[in-house]
Design a protein that fits this description.
disordered C terminus, 323 residues, globular, single chain, Zinc Finger, Delta Prime, domain 3
Length: 323
């Protein structure tokens, strides 16, 4: 199997976020070390993507993006996200606001909460005004830290990523502080086929073929695959805006949750079969790299452990100081 470097990079990037979501901590370490070995371009991508993943998957941890010049400081942030239950409301609100910004008023459901979507959509339209408004609000220490980090990454990523970061800043100011809760480590083998979604060439091809064979609309199959497998986590905490975003997307593709389940169950095995070779190659490739780089991975783990321990000590000292 001949695979271009660009396709390999896309696989590793997708693998990283899926491993974080599902709480496969060891896999996050291995994938992170591999990405670091690919050179400065991938290390730069990792820094930006770490911030975006944090705001997407557990926005309250946006206050702990304590990066320095060392690669392990970014890995530490993703390890923290991997270990906790996910709070994805910034992602849900940000995606709905972005859709409204593009003119899709179907995101409204006639409830008072519509105003929050409108506010973040206006923030996308007038970002400078939004950030000035946020900075003028009374902020706790954690809110101020999240605001500072959101400001640092406000120009990074795709337009929807920027909307998620704005949504995180808005939620930090307008909602009660949400505490993160530890989640148990993943207790099942990682399904490598989930790496190949509609953001990878192999995933696009497989989903198209299965949709054609089963006479399923491609957008419906893509969304069902993401909803049931691609977005799967090791635990969610009160995902109000995330649930609303998912409900809206089901409506956009013309499905109910019940219909999606009936569609996905027979399609799942065909998707797995279609991607079996790709999944096997990726798993074996990662294993071979891991065996050849055990010292590198162990060194990264030690550096991350020390970084997190030091960060938590500083937080405790500050708490004592300001009590």
């Amino acid at each position: 199997m001949i695979i271009s470097q660009a396709d390999k990079d896309a696989r590793y990037r997708s693998l990283l976020q899926k491993a974080v979501r599902r709480g496969h901590v060891d896999l996050v370490y291995t994938t992170s070390a591999l990405i670091e070995s690919l050179g400065s371009k991938e290390k730069d991508w990792y820094r930006t993507r770490t911030a975006i993943i944090t705001f997407e998957e557990c926005w309250p941890l946006g206050c702990e993006l304590n990066f320095n010049r060392k690669f392990h400081s970014k890995v530490a942030a993703l390890i923290k996200v991997s270990r906790v239950q996910k709070i994805r409301d910034a992602s849900g609100l940000g995606y709905l606001a972005y859709a409204l910004h593009k003119g899709d008023t179907s995101v409204y459901d006639g409830t008072p909460e519509d105003k929050h979507i409108r506010i973040v959509a206006n923030a996308i339209q007038r970002p400078d005004d939004f950030w000035r408004w946020i900075s003028a609000q009374k902020q706790s220490e954690r809110q101020a830290a999240l605001f500072e980090n959101a400001m640092r990454f406000k120009h990074e990523g795709l337009p929807r990523d920027k909307a998620v970061i704005q949504a995180a800043a808005y939620l930090a100011i307008t909602t009660d502080a949400q505490e993160t809760a530890e989640s148990p480590p993943a207790d099942e083998a990682f399904p490598f086929w989930v790496v190949f979604d509609r953001h990878t060439p192999e995933g696009i091809l497989a989903l198209r073929e299965v949709a054609r064979d089963l006479h399923i609309q491609l957008p419906q199959l893509e969304w069902a695959c993401f909803y049931y497998e691609g977005s799967k986590t090791n635990g969610d905490v009160s995902p109000t805006w995330w649930d609303r975003r998912c409900k809206w997307h089901f409506q956009k593709v013309g499905l109910t949750v019940e219909e999606a389940h009936l569609l996905w169950e027979p399609a799942k095995e065909q998707v797995i079969d279609a991607l079996a070779g790709e999944a096997r190659w990726l798993k074996n490739e990662l294993y071979r790299w891991k065996v050849s780089n055990l010292k590198r991975i162990e060194s990264l783990k030690r550096q991350v452990d020390l970084f997190i321990e030091h960060f938590e000590e500083v937080q405790r000292d500050q708490t004592i100081l300001f009590d």
